[in-house]
Structures are given as C-alpha cells and as structure tokens.
C-alpha cells in the first residue's frame, strides 16, 4: 500500500466575519489524507463539511491552524485538486469533449496528447458517443459524468466531490456510485467526498469521518472496507450485520 501523505491539516479553524462578530464554522480540525484514501465526510446540516472541502480546494483560507498539501502551504486553488460540485457547472458554449479538454489545454499540452487524455476519460465515464454534443442536450447524470471526466483530465493529486449525486434520481445515483467506485479502483485516485447519505458513504469510502454540530470538528473516524464486498451481478455492496451495525452507529453520532 502506498502511504504517501497528500494532505495534512492540524488544528484548523475557520471563522466567517459578520456585521457584528465572526461566526466559527470549523474548530480544531485535525486530518491526514493518504494516497488512495476514499474519505467520506458525514455530519448534520451546517456542520462545516463543505467548508472543510473548500479549504482543501483552496477556495477558503483557514483563520488559524496548518494546512499543507504534499508538504507545502496552500495559497489558493490549483490543478492538483480537482472539484466536482452538486451542480455540474459545465461550460455551456463548449461541447462535451471541449469541456474535458479544457484543463489539459490550459496546461499547454500538445494537441495530440490533449485528444488522447479527453478520449481516455470520456471512455472511462461512458460518454465518448456524445463527445461532440453540447451539455444542454445531456441528462443530469450524464452532465455529472462530464464534470467527473473534466476533473480527472487534470490528473489531480486529490479529487474533491461535494455531494455530487445529491440532485440525481435514486437509480442514476446508484449508477454514479458504481462508476466512481470503479474509477477509484482502476486509477488509484485519492478522493475526499461530502455526503449526507450514510449508505453512500459505507458503499464507497475506506475512511468515514463524522463531524459534530457547528462549529464543526471531526468527532469520530471509521475505517471500513465494504467497498470491496461488491455483488458482481448487481454492482452493489453486500449488506450484512456488520454493515447495518456500523450504519446505526454513524446515524446515532449524527443525531446527537
């Protein structure tokens, strides 16, 4: 197993200024993320899950504490951290392929290499047949697959997913979970994902983090391996007594 340390967060605090006083969103967060982790973050609404993701993405700077990526301080966003949001946020004037090619093109890669990268990731998300279509012609699930391919095309050190399946119907959501699990295993990606769905976290994650009510901090971590227990026929994780017990334990923590 590759134990390369990707992210190191120590005693991290985030305060948001208001008209009269600051509001603390995160308080004393400690976290290490290693190569090929699949971290899922759970917690009550408003606990700071997305704030933590925004700090890792470089969108929000810490008020206090330390945040290092591969040993270096982070001053803002860069291509080493790919982000997929709940809304696909595609460029509507570009084709599907052009959306996926955007990052490699900005990096200044040769045209032939850009084409190979885009083709590879479009194949991986099963969208090569719609590569020349504009995003508005796609379903919600297809748009999220384009957003995933676009993030992967930059080959980031860590992929950040902020409730990426929250707006999808139940069946499409299951298919997207299966796709992300397959890509994570094939590519050996490192993934940090925000979700409200305990079953989604259990079926995808290798490390589950449960956060407290606001101001948020990590109150418990679970190491799990349910993502390795998949029914080959259905593509779904086996649900057994261990799974159900862990599910109830997490729900009890979130409800406290």
Which key features would you list for this structure?
256 residues; alpha/beta; Rossmann fold; 2 domains; six-stranded mixed β-sheet; four-stranded antiparallel β-sheet; 7 helices; 25% strand; globular
Structural commentary:
With 256 residues, the chain is an alpha/beta fold. The chain folds into 2 domains: 1-64 and 171-256, 3-Layer(aba) Sandwich (Rossmann fold), CATH 3.40.50.300; 81-155, no CATH class. Helix content is 34%, strand content 25%. A hairpin with a 4-residue loop joins strand 1 (5-17) and strand 2. The longest helix has 18 residues, at 170-187.
Q: What is the number of E strands?
A: 10
> How many domains comprise the coordinates?
2
Strand content: 15-25%
Shape: globular
Rg: 18 Å
Might you state the CATH topology name of the largest domain? Rossmann fold
| Poorly predicted spans | none
Oligomeric status: single chain
Question: Average pLDDT, to the nearest integer?
Answer: 92
User: CATH-wise, what's the superfamily of the largest domain?
Assistant: P-loop containing nucleotide triphosphate hydrolases
* Strand line-up of the largest beta sheet: 6-7-8-3-9-10
What about the largest sheet? Answer: 6 strands, mixed
CATH architecture of the largest domain: 3-Layer(aba) Sandwich
Structural class: alpha/beta
User: Into which percent range does the helicity of residues fall?
Assistant: 25-40%
Query: What string gives the helices and strands in order?
Result: EEEHEEEHHHEHEHEEH
Number of helices: 7
Q: In CATH, what is the class of the largest domain? A: Alpha Beta
């Amino acid at each position: 197993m590759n134990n390369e340390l990707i992210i190191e967060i120590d005693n991290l605090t985030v305060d948001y200024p208001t008209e009269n006083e600051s509001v603390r969103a995160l308080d004393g967060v400690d976290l290490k993320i290693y190569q090929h982790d699949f971290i899922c973050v759970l917690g009550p609404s408003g606990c700071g899950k997305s704030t933590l993701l925004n700090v890792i993405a470089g969108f929000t700077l810490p008020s206090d504490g330390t945040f290092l990526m591969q040993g270096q301080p982070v001053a803002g966003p860069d291509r080493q951290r790919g982000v997929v949001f709940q809304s696909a946020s595609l460029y509507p004037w570009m084709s599907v392929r052009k959306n996926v090619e955007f990052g490699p093109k900005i990096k200044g890669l040769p045209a032939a290499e850009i084409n190979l990268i885009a083709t590879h990731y479009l194949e991986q998300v099963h969208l090569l047949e719609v590569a020349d279509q504009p995003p508005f012609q796609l379903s919600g699930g297809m748009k999220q697959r384009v957003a995933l391919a676009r993030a992967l095309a930059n080959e980031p050190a860590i992929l950040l997913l902020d409730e990426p399946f929250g707006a999808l119907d139940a069946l499409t959501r299951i298919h997207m979970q299966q796709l992300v699990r397959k890509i994570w295993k094939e590519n050996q990606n490192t993934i940090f994902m925000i979700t409200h769905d305990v079953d989604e976290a259990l079926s995808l994650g290798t490390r589950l983090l449960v956060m407290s009510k606001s101001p948020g901090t990590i109150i418990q971590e679970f190491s799990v391996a349910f993502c390795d227990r998949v029914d080959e026929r259905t593509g779904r994780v086996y649900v057994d007594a261990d799974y159900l017990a862990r599910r109830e334990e997490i729900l009890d923590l979130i409800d406290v």
